[in-house]
Amino acid sequence: MALRAEAYRNWGRWGDDDVLGTLNFIDDDIRRAAAALVREGRSISLSQPFDTDGPQKGWRRRTNPVHTMTDTGTDAERGNQGFPHGIGGADDVIAMPLQCSTQWDGLGHIFDHGFAWNGRRAGDVVTSDGDLVTGIEHAASVIVSRGVLLDVGRHLSPETGELADGHAITVADLEACAAAEGVEVRRGDIVLVRTGHYTRARREGWGDYAGGPAPGLSLTTAGWLHRTEIAAIATDTWGFEVRPNEFDVPAFQPLHQVVIPNLGLTIGEMWNLDELASACAEASRWEFLLAAPPLPITGAVGSPVNPLALL
């Protein structure tokens, strides 16, 4: 793993002060070209719901969202809100970990041997005050680009559209899927990889969706992620990479450890790709405009997101 980290390290590529990593691959020309992919005007949300019926079970203090009403229609009917002339209203608040549902991992989320993205010391980047350097707010206006869906679940398991837990997706799988779809992965793309794991979880119950065995990218795809110069990648699984790790050595999220702090790659997890997959299959078109800005939460190392694919 250490060899992969060093071989694919992008430290200094965009200067010592860089805070965006591979998101730098998205430029105005790429956005203009992506906008031209909107032909039907169809908009598809790629987000899971944000509610108490979510996958989280408390690991690392991650819980499902708690939504609370602070003003209601009942209050308005009873006239106890203190507003004049009969006007009433509703108000609410939500409490949740920023990575409990559909989300981006920011560059301050994972460290490699005490180092963060671009070779900075982890403790100089993220403190109790938040990510002081690469906070997710820096990406707020950036993540709009050409999206490419690689429906690996449907490609490798056409009967079910779902990969088995523990299936490690290889470079050969990604390239064969792209070839079968007739789509080319290009610099600046946001690649979406559908495994079918979310589909199975919604049908059979969450089970161990959050943190348990799952299909996902093999550690051996690190070179492909570097070579293709994609801007970001997202999957329909909790952890992006295969779980458990495919090698018989102690490891926890080794692909995260390589690609976030070393490549500077932004990763999305728990995306709902099912409606998009059906739309792409019907149209035989696997590229689209993708808009997925994070909430500009100052100093956050991740963010909820409601990604929109426009076809």
Automatic annotation (TrEMBL):
Keywords: Hydrolase. It is an enzyme of class 3 (hydrolase). GO terms for molecular function: hydrolase activity. Residues 47-80 are annotated as: Disordered. Its EC number is 3.5.-.-. Gene3D superfamilies: Putative cyclase. PANTHER family: CYCLASE, PTHR34861. This is Cyclase family protein. The lineage of its organism: Bacteria, Bacillati, Actinomycetota, Actinomycetes, Micrococcales.
